[in-house]
Amino acid sequence: MKAFAPAYSLAYCIAYAVVFVLDAPLFLYYPMEGRFAWSWAPYASIGPAMAWYGLVAAAALVAAPVALLVPPRMFAGRGAAFLWLLPVSVLGVCAWRLKFFFA
Amino acid sequence: MITTLLILHGLIAVALLGALSHQCASLWFAGRGGSSFAARYAAVNPQRFVRAVVVCFAADLILAALIYPSYRIDVRIPFEEMSLGWAVGLFELKEHAGGIGLGLLPAYAFLWRSDATPAQRGARIGITVLLAAIVWWDFLVGHVLNNIRGLA
User: Fold this and answer.
1) Residue B14: closest CA among B152, B100, B135
2) Where does the pLDDT of residue A43 fall: very low under 50, low under 70, confident under 90, or very high at 90 and above?
3) Which of A88, B8, B31, B87 is deepest in the core (most CB within 10 A)?
4) Is A63 close to B103, i.e. CB distance below 8 A?
5) Touching check for A49 and chain B: CB below 8 Å?
6) How far is CA B65 from CA B6, B17, B61, B98, B145, in A?
7) Is the Cβ–Cβ distance between B91 and B30 less than 8 Å?
8) Class of residue B112 by CB neighbours under 10 A (exposed 0-12, middle 13-18, buried 19+)
9) Coil/strand/helix, residue B73
10) Contact with chain A for residue B135, Cβ under 8 A
11) Where are the alpha helices (H) located in A22-81, listed in sequence order?
12) How far apart are CA B53 and CA B132, in angstroms?
């Protein structure tokens, strides 16, 4: 069980990057109306949709089963370095994906 | 109500900054000793901050999630109307950094166990510095954006 925590973090970061790059949040939130909708069945809102809650939820859900597949010994040795190197890379992916805001 | 939540969000962020900065300083100055201000700032038991960091980070993110819809309507739309795309981009980076930081908390708590292996103690430095960088980034961006156009 001890190995689940780091495996979960690693899987969460990978899932977050994939979901973000593919623009596939679990659901969207429409703050003007206070309504939620599955991202594959968007609601015809007069206002903007927010994807962040759905991104976090999707990454959190996907990470749980994936973390069970990670071998526990992975984080005993040098593999532990992935626990901070991978999130740094994911942050880089996010920055790259958002570069159009700064163009 | 939003102003109260925003102030609470900022106050918890300050506590989080303090805890993570103390931890980073203690890792940097580990075993050096001395009586300078920096050495005394670093002379803490970093293990004692772990639970506080996890609780403060999670609590702060919950508050951020509650405030977020107000930002989306009352701040981001005016930013877009003012052609401040960079400000919107900074916030987007802030929200994703926060979301990734949330996912790092289990690994952070795992690496700060007292029975961590030498390799895990090395990774502990990386993840603590990364979390501190995320919190500092989110804090400073939040302040800059709030100075451009605040909530409420």
Assistant:
1) B135
2) confident
3) B87
4) yes
5) no
6) 11, 19, 6, 10, 17
7) no
8) buried
9) helix
10) no
11) 52-69
12) 10
Length of chain B: 152
Please state the ipTM of this predicted complex: 0.91
The two counts, helices (H) then strands (E), for chain A are 3, 2
- Quickly tell me which residue has 């930013």 as its tokens: B79
Interface test with B, best of A84, A90, A91, A100 (most B CBs within 10 A): A84
> What b-and-e string marks burial along A80-95, b requiring 16 or more CB atoms within 10 Å of the CB?
bbbbbebbeebbebbe
Lowest mean pLDDT among A6-15, A74-83, B64-73: A74-83
Angle at A80 between CA B113 and CA A14, to 5 degrees: 110
B106–A6 CB contact, under 8 Å: yes
Give the separation between CA A3 and CA A37, rounded to whole angstroms: 35
Q: Give the global pTM.
A: 0.92
Give the residue among A70, A75, A8, A82 at the shortest CA–CA distance from B106.
A8
